[in-house]
């Protein structure tokens, strides 16, 4: 890519949030917990209860895997703490590493650096993968011997011979000046396993052969031992890569990439660039050079989007390169952001009409108990039977999230008193230390006057 | 054996038949692999011979070993012969590699395994790959 040196423009990207880091509260989820017939198991892969919605998600998942429902949208709706994000996570986990999954919180798109629609387009294009194949001819073998003849005068062309072997064969290569240079640059010696790229002549060292392990008693820790390669010496290596459309966009707006496009300096990717990339990718697909993998874009807290974004979503879903859109919201009938209209889930009716809606319902006491147990295992906290029951009650009466918070804090208290198992006393202690939402509001109501800026409360009252 | 469908699982005869099919498919893969190795060995030997012909011997005629017989041959003709052989080997190797892919697919299918993703894609050209490479590095 060193052919052109245009001033590179920086393209701000929607920050990539890795699946595990973002949703720490859902790190125990390994999948949707369905059997082969898509029937949900009561407790499996970190999922508990929500049978109906999990089954619905499973059906959608199968359709995504078969590539049937690109460009569709799903809404997961339910009260807070009923496992909406967990289901989305489960879908993400079951899709496997090859299907792109992009997670995004509704408020993330409000940034000063780029427009909302740009942030959304980038997220959309991150969720579409393109699978391509690279094919190289390489020579791979263990170095048996390198012999380099230097001319007596010290200058002039060097000649040499390189003997390579695999488990099946052995052969001698004549070396030219250039090859000798790169061999000595890589410090290749007898016993190394190397590959030589046939097209470029690039040499890379894979490690040292096991059979030579005894040659050195003292060696650096970084020395890696590998098996002597098998089979033929001259191999054809095929590597399948998956890149997202967004990544291709970025290189093409940064440099004069293979499409030789002009790049703007607005910090956003021009729609011309996107169109050209789409055309190129479609061309590749027709030539059999690329496969398009429609992935999943997950927008959490979708009620945070405003009217502009919703109309963008409407349009984006109709494009032929569109991922499956999964949204989650915990709102009921509420005002659509940026307007005065009320609508279910805070989503305009025309978009709502296109969605498949999955509802989640509150967990039962038994399910709550199960979830708390799974979380304890995840956080490495041992819980006594009584403490577990108490915690379940707290979870039922306050919220599941609050009970989950208490696990790790109670674990700390327990460790402080050098206990091995969290007892009821530990739970009681953290329950008195940390307020749940209801008690906190109660406290606010009682001591409102002693807080700062308490007049805002009254001001709000007046306007509403 | 979850791979077997229900009818074949019932009768032992069906099982034997199924296993034979899988074994046959596997055998095909292994033979093709071995063939590729043998041809590559030949190719490498030819290459060594060409190198030897290029440098070293200054006499007009060279001795070539055919099977267990040495035949004296003019140098240029010998080179030509080997080069022709190389070309043929290259095309044969290409052919075998294509066949190997089909064989592996066949084996996977027989075993009830899913097809490898991206297995049947055509490779991108060197230029296109170069552009994509800069993405992959990160």
TrEMBL record, chain A:
<dbReference type="GO" id="GO:0048565">
    <property type="term" value="P:digestive tract development"/>
</dbReference>
<dbReference type="GO" id="GO:0003351">
    <property type="term" value="P:epithelial cilium movement involved in extracellular fluid movement"/>
</dbReference>
<dbReference type="Pfam" id="PF06068">
    <property type="entry name" value="TIP49"/>
</dbReference>
<keyword id="KW-0547">Nucleotide-binding</keyword>
<dbReference type="InterPro" id="IPR010339">
    <property type="entry name" value="TIP49_P-loop"/>
</dbReference>
<protein>
    <recommendedName>
        <fullName>RuvB-like helicase</fullName>
        <ecNumber>3.6.4.12</ecNumber>
    </recommendedName>
</protein>
<keyword id="KW-0227">DNA damage</keyword>
<comment type="similarity">
    <text>Belongs to the RuvB family.</text>
</comment>
<dbReference type="Pfam" id="PF17856">
    <property type="entry name" value="TIP49_C"/>
</dbReference>
<dbReference type="GO" id="GO:0006310">
    <property type="term" value="P:DNA recombination"/>
</dbReference>
<dbReference type="InterPro" id="IPR041048">
    <property type="entry name" value="RuvB-like_C"/>
</dbReference>
<feature type="domain" description="AAA+ ATPase">
    <location>
        <begin position="70"/>
        <end position="362"/>
    </location>
</feature>
<dbReference type="GO" id="GO:0005576">
    <property type="term" value="C:extracellular region"/>
</dbReference>
<dbReference type="InterPro" id="IPR003593">
    <property type="entry name" value="AAA+_ATPase"/>
</dbReference>
<dbReference type="GO" id="GO:0005634">
    <property type="term" value="C:nucleus"/>
</dbReference>
<dbReference type="GO" id="GO:0006281">
    <property type="term" value="P:DNA repair"/>
</dbReference>
<dbReference type="InterPro" id="IPR042487">
    <property type="entry name" value="RuvBL1/2_DNA/RNA_bd_dom"/>
</dbReference>
<dbReference type="GO" id="GO:0005524">
    <property type="term" value="F:ATP binding"/>
</dbReference>
<keyword id="KW-0378">Hydrolase</keyword>
<dbReference type="GO" id="GO:0044458">
    <property type="term" value="P:motile cilium assembly"/>
</dbReference>
<comment type="function">
    <text>Proposed core component of the chromatin remodeling Ino80 complex which exhibits DNA- and nucleosome-activated ATPase activity and catalyzes ATP-dependent nucleosome sliding.</text>
</comment>
<keyword id="KW-0067">ATP-binding</keyword>
UniProtKB/TrEMBL annotation, chain B:
<protein>
    <recommendedName>
        <fullName>p53 and DNA damage-regulated protein 1</fullName>
    </recommendedName>
</protein>
<dbReference type="GO" id="GO:0051082">
    <property type="term" value="F:unfolded protein binding"/>
</dbReference>
<dbReference type="Pfam" id="PF01920">
    <property type="entry name" value="Prefoldin_2"/>
</dbReference>
<dbReference type="GO" id="GO:0005737">
    <property type="term" value="C:cytoplasm"/>
</dbReference>
<dbReference type="InterPro" id="IPR002777">
    <property type="entry name" value="PFD_beta-like"/>
</dbReference>
<keyword id="KW-0143">Chaperone</keyword>
<dbReference type="GO" id="GO:0006457">
    <property type="term" value="P:protein folding"/>
</dbReference>
<comment type="function">
    <text>May play a role in chaperone-mediated protein folding.</text>
</comment>
<dbReference type="GO" id="GO:0016272">
    <property type="term" value="C:prefoldin complex"/>
</dbReference>
<dbReference type="InterPro" id="IPR030482">
    <property type="entry name" value="PDRG1"/>
</dbReference>
<dbReference type="InterPro" id="IPR009053">
    <property type="entry name" value="Prefoldin"/>
</dbReference>
<keyword id="KW-0963">Cytoplasm</keyword>
<comment type="subunit">
    <text>Component of the PAQosome complex which is responsible for the biogenesis of several protein complexes and which consists of R2TP complex members RUVBL1, RUVBL2, RPAP3 and PIH1D1, URI complex members PFDN2, PFDN6, PDRG1, UXT and URI1 as well as ASDURF, POLR2E and DNAAF10/WDR92.</text>
</comment>
<comment type="similarity">
    <text>Belongs to the prefoldin subunit beta family.</text>
</comment>
């Amino acid at each position: 890519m060193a052919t052109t040196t245009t001033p590179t423009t920086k393209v701000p990207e929607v920050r990539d949030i890795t699946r595990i880091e973002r949703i720490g509260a859902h790190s125990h989820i390994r999948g949707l917990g369905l059997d082969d017939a898509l029937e949900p198991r009561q407790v499996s892969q970190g999922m508990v209860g929500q049978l109906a919605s999990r089954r619905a998600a499973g059906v959608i998942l199968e359709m995504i895997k078969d590539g049937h429902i690109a460009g569709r949208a799903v809404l997961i709706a339910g009260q807070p703490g009923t496992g909406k994000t967990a289901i989305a996570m489960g879908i993400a986990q079951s899709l496997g590493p090859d299907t792109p999954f992009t997670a995004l919180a509704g408020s993330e798109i409000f940034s000063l650096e780029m427009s909302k629609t740009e942030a959304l387009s980038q997220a959309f294009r991150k969720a579409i993968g393109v699978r391509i194949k690279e094919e190289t001819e390489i020579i791979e073998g263990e170095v048996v011997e390198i012999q380099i003849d230097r001319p007596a005068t010290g200058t002039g062309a060097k000649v040499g011979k390189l003997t390579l072997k695999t488990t099946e064969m052995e052969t001698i290569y004549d070396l030219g000046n250039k090859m000798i240079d790169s061999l000595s640059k890589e410090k290749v010696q007898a016993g190394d396993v190397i590959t030589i790229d046939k097209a470029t002549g690039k040499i890379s060292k894979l490690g040292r052969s096991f059979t030579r392990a005894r040659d050195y008693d003292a060696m650096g820790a970084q020395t890696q031992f590998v098996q002597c390669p098998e089979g033929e010496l001259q191999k054809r290596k095929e590597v399948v890569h998956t890149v997202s459309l967004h990544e291709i966009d970025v290189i093409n707006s940064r440099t004069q990439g293979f499409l030789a496009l002009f790049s703007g300096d607005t910090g956003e990717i021009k729609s011309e660039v996107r169109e050209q990339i789409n055309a190129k990718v479609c061309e590749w697909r027709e030539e059999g050079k690329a496969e398009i993998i429609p992935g999943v874009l997950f927008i959490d807290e979708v009620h945070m989007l405003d009217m502009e974004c919703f109309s963008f979503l409407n349009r984006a879903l109709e494009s032929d390169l569109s991922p499956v859109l999964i949204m989650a919201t915990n709102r009921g009938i509420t005002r659509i952001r940026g307007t005065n209209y009320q609508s279910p889930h805070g989503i305009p009716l025309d978009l709502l009409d296109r969605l498949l809606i999955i509802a989640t319902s509150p967990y039962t006491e038994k399910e709550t108990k199960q979830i708390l147990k799974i979380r304890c295992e995840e956080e490495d906290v041992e819980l006594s039977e009584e403490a577990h029951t108490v915690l379940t009650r707290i979870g039922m009466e306050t919220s599941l999230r609050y009970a989950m918070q208490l696990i790790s804090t109670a674990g700390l208290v327990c460790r402080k008193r050098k206990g091995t198992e969290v007892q009821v006393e530990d739970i009681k202690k953290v329950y008195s230390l940390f307020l749940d939402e209801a008690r906190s509001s109660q406290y606010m109501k009682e001591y409102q006057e002693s807080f700062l800026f308490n007049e805002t409360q009254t001001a709000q009252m007046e306007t509403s | 054996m979850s791979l077997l469908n229900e009818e074949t699982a019932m009768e032992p005869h069906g099982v034997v038949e199924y296993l034979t099919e899988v074994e046959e498919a596997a055998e095909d893969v292994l033979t093709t692999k071995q063939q590729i190795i043998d041809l590559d060995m030949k190719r490498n030997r030819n290459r060594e011979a060409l190198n030897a012909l290029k440098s070293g011997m200054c006499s007009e005629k060279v001795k070539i070993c055919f099977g267990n017989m040495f035949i004296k041959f003019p140098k240029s003709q010998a080179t030509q012969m080997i080069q022709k052989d190389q070309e043929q080997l290259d095309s044969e190797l290409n052919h075998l590699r294509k066949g190997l892919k089909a064989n592996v697919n066949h084996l996977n299918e027989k075993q009830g395994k899913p097809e490898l993703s991206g297995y049947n894609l055509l490779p991108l050209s060197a230029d296109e790959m170069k552009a994509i490479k800069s993405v992959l590095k990160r």
